[in-house]
Design a protein that fits this description.
By secondary structure, the chain is of the alpha/beta class. 43% of the residues lie in helices and 19% in strands.
Length: 321
């Protein structure tokens, strides 16, 4: 089956033109949807480590200002079109989320003929503070999300009160959530800021709607575009295997990485609490580059154009953060 659209992410943003959510929210919903579709079936080998395309994305805006919950709802409608995309409930306990992970384990036949068992879960939360729980009680959830972000390859083990130890095969967590500045501050303890959970989150800020739309109906052209988006998203969800750098991208990435300074005094976010985030910035660039590549083609090759696009997207977020 061949694709109908040259760039899924761009087409998704065009599809959202006549809706109210901030344009930057539309863009990052698109990234999260592609990550959810890929699941743990693709990765980028980077020497001794593997980079997976999961992201923790949190929209931040004042209540009702930028339609963040509406943006999430549009994304959910696309995720729900792919049966293999398993989403967790909006507000769950740590134990319930682990049960969701254990229950969504599947065996995938990979291109090399091997069977790969993984547990890929997308968390969608319109009220991030509700998902995390009260500040006095949410330490376990914060630690769990922090621990699972790297998608370790080995099975993840945890102990329960009544059934002893449980094992989850090869975890993949993708998070898309929304909150307000006040709620974010009230739900995150100091230990989560800096080198903890916040250094693993891409915060997306908006201070207004894209436009006012009294009646957000769908035109025939938009409905046709939606059909093409759903068709191509299905194709994206079937991608599997290892990404690799193109020859030029391989050399250019090494050069960029060697010149990158996480403590650069001229970096956009100068607050020391961003030190942990900047130490992970190269990883975010590669994750997003994988999503850019998957949006455009089934070819599992990262070009320098993909990586440069990812850098631009990250730079845009830095300004708002």
């Amino acid at each position: 089956m061949s694709r109908s659209l040259p760039d899924w992410l761009q087409a998704y943003q065009i599809f959202q033109t006549n809706t109210e959510p901030a344009a930057i929210f539309d863009k990052w919903v698109g990234y999260s949807v592609v990550a959810a579709a890929l699941r743990k079936k693709v990765h980028l080998p980077l020497g001794r480590i593997k980079i997976y395309p999961n992201l923790y994305i949190v929209f931040v805006a004042e209540p009702g200002i930028a339609r963040k919950s509406q943006a999430l709802s549009y994304g959910i409608s696309f995720m729900s079109s792919i049966p293999e995309i398993i989403c967790s409930a909006d507000a769950v306990t740590k134990e319930a989320m682990l049960d969701d992970l254990e229950n969504c384990a599947v065996d995938e036949l990979m291109p090399d003929g091997e069977t790969f068992r993984h547990s890929s879960l997308s968390i969608i939360s319109k009220e991030f503070e509700s998902f995390l729980g009260q500040k006095k009680e949410n330490t376990k959830m914060l630690v769990l999300l922090t621990d699972l972000f790297d998608c370790q390859e080995l099975p993840w083990k945890y102990r329960t009160k009544h059934s002893g130890s449980n094992v989850i095969p090869s975890v993949f967590i993708n998070l898309l959530a929304a909150t307000t500045p006040d709620s974010l501050a009230s739900s995150l303890p100091p230990t989560a800021v800096g080198g903890g959970l916040t250094s693993r989150i891409l915060f997306v800020w908006a201070d207004g709607k894209k436009r006012k739309v009294p009646k957000p109906t769908t035109t025939k052209e938009e409905e046709r575009l939606r059909e093409l988006l759903l068709k191509d998203l299905y194709i994206i969800s079937r991608m599997a295997g290892n990404f690799s750098f193109s020859k030029n991208a391989d050399a250019a990435w090494d050069a960029w990485y060697m010149s990158y300074e996480e403590g650069d005094p001229n970096r956009i976010c100068k607050d020391p609490s961003f030190n942990g985030w900047y130490s992970r910035k190269p990883m975010y660039v590669l994750k997003i580059a994988m999503l850019v590549a998957a949006s455009k083609s089934d070819n599992l090759v990262l070009t320098w154009d993909h990586i440069e696009m990812a850098m631009k997207e990250i730079a845009e977020l830095e300004v708002y953060m």
